[in-house]
């Protein structure tokens, strides 16, 4: 094994590990239905406030995607379903950068702040009466 191959192998460990852990989590949630009471704890934010956080419905959305029920996934957490392709593309960029020996740069601050803004707006709007369709 050459030094370049060893270096690439080490660089690929982190993105490969993230992919393996994500796949294991998706398989687990796909097999252990979060729609059945008692399998998972209640969202702490919802438990304390009675309001939905941006992550409420995520386990049920992942279960829907894992069982190929996109309609159920969208009804539980549409933001997550929309973000999955973005996260997969970002992971692919990370894997490509690791393979080529480059460092993956973070998105520009404007992109990060825009995402945070979308998250906050989603958090507020999904708790308003006219947007009940966003509630899990």
Automatic annotation (TrEMBL):
Keywords: Membrane, Transmembrane, Transmembrane helix
InterPro entries, per the entry: DUF2752
Annotated Pfam families: DUF2752
Transmembrane spans: 12-32, 74-92, 112-135
Protein name: DUF2752 domain-containing protein
Source organism of this protein record: Nonomuraea soli
Taxonomic classification: Bacteria, Bacillati, Actinomycetota, Actinomycetes, Streptosporangiales
